[in-house]
Specification:
28% of the residues lie in helices and 27% in strands. The chain has 196 residues and is an alpha+beta fold. Helix 3 (65-72) packs antiparallel against helix 5 (178-195).
Length: 196
């Protein structure tokens, strides 16, 4: 339970941290490539939006039991339905290593890009495509060497799927968690596509 709460708080913190900066000016339509402009960051567009509605209250369903087992021998789930930004599901193995999923209706990747500053602590590393969807590895603190990685994937204009990990010494993924987080996101997108 402790691991899930720590990760849930971290994911919520990332979501809320995205809301901590304000940028004056007018909203503009973002082009399909990343970069920056005088009006703010250019955010990659989602060209094939997914309907996430049926998964938002229980994001545990973005992975099947077989996918979770294949991913990292994850066998149990824990749901926090009242987390800020949306419900969070933690898939765990027997040693409490976990991969968490949430579908946040907080402005999609645009909010994350708009509120990122180059001098922010942590990391912000765009990924051109995760199963055909724009994404960014980003967190307000960098715990990747200790098993924590967060990936936000734009699955529609207003929804970002956030996938994060907490791996302990018992996990072979602890020293390099981000590839497994990306694989989890790819599996979840396949489920979202099938359910849309």
């Amino acid at each position: 339970m402790r691991t899930f709460l720590i990760t849930a708080v971290a994911a919520a913190g990332l979501t809320l941290a995205g809301c901590s900066h304000t940028t004056p000016g007018n909203a503009t339509t973002a082009p399909s490539t990343s970069g920056s402009s005088s009006n703010g960051p250019v955010v990659p567009q989602v060209t094939n939006p997914l309907d996430t509605t049926k998964f938002e209250q229980n994001p545990c369903d973005v992975l099947t039991k077989d996918q979770a087992r294949e991913l990292a021998n994850l066998t149990t789930t824990r749901l926090d339905a009242k987390a800020p930004g949306g419900a969070i599901c933690g898939w765990q193995d027997e040693n409490h290593n976990d991969v968490n999923f949430s579908l946040n209706r907080t402005g999609g990747l645009e909010t994350l890009y708009r509120n990122h500053r180059s001098d922010d602590p942590g990391y912000f590393e765009p990924v051109p495509s995760v199963a055909g969807y724009p994404a960014v590895f980003a967190s307000i603190s960098d715990g990747r060497a200790g098993g924590t990685c967060t990936l936000s994937v734009g699955v529609s204009k207003d929804v970002a799927m956030v996938v994060s990990s907490t791996f302990f010494a018992s996990s072979p993924n602890r020293s390099d968690p981000c590839p497994l987080v990306q694989k989890a996101a790819e599996m979840a997108i396949a489920t979202l596509k099938a359910g849309s």
